[in-house]
Amino acid sequence: MKDKTWSESLLFATFLTLAGGLQDGYSYALRGKVFVNALTGNVVLMAFNLAEGNFPAMLRYFIQIASFALGVYVSGRIAFSKKRRVGLHFKQRILATEIAILVVVGFLSKELDSVANSMMAFSCGMQVNTFRKFADINAATTMCVGNVRTIMHNLAGYHHTKGAVHKETSRTVLFIVGIFFVGALIGGLCFSLMGLKTIWLSAIFLAVSFIILHMDPAIRT
After folding, report:
1. Angstrom distance (rounded) from CA 130 to CA 133
2. Domain spans in the chain, listed from the N-terminal domain onward
């Protein structure tokens, strides 16, 4: 499979995924052991806390879920409008918003972990809704569950049909999962050095993605 545009290239997906992996590791390690990208886990924990009558904790998880959902909705509204503003394509504006959010998160103290996690969940919702296809393959840059399903489904397809498309799809998505791991690893190596400001590395990865996006003729026109 050949990359059609910069915005659907594996290079672009690589930096988005590095940002996603680092962000998830950051929220867990430094912001109260919360996976801002793991919506299913938050739903389960919200239900558990409701069953135990722990309403403050239940509300905290609900806010994370609502923030993610709001990010999806806002990015959807921006995408459906398809209007260029300040000379930027809607995908560029969404990336710029994500970058700004993560820069602000790096300034927030531990006492504002809930706010920081909600902001990151919102950013994640925007990213997962906007960037979903790379090298003709549907893949997520902020989580791994669906990607692992895609890997194994296409691996089974390759073993059954020997079709090259299944093999290439499985290999490509495995690469994306590996990059997610690397993003989390980079975060883990930097936590002790940069502390809460480690999230700025994720913002840098997104900034590189923004530059790559700007190189796409389809985005600039």
Report:
1. 9
2. 7-220
| Residue written as token pair 């989580």 | 143
Q: Which residue has the tokens 């919360």?
A: 34
Q: Is the pLDDT score of 220 beyond 70?
A: no
The first and second tokens of residue 137, run together, are 């393959």
Predicted local distance difference test score (pLDDT) of residue 1:
40
Residue carrying structure tokens 């050095």: 193
Q: Give yes or no for residue 151 having a pLDDT over 50.
A: yes
CATH number of 7-220: 1.20.1250
Nearest to 67 by CA among 27, 118, 128, 135: 118
Task: Return the closest-CA partner of residue 131 out of 221, 58, 209, 187.
Answer: 209
Distance separating alpha carbons of residues 89 and 214, to the nearest angstrom: 9
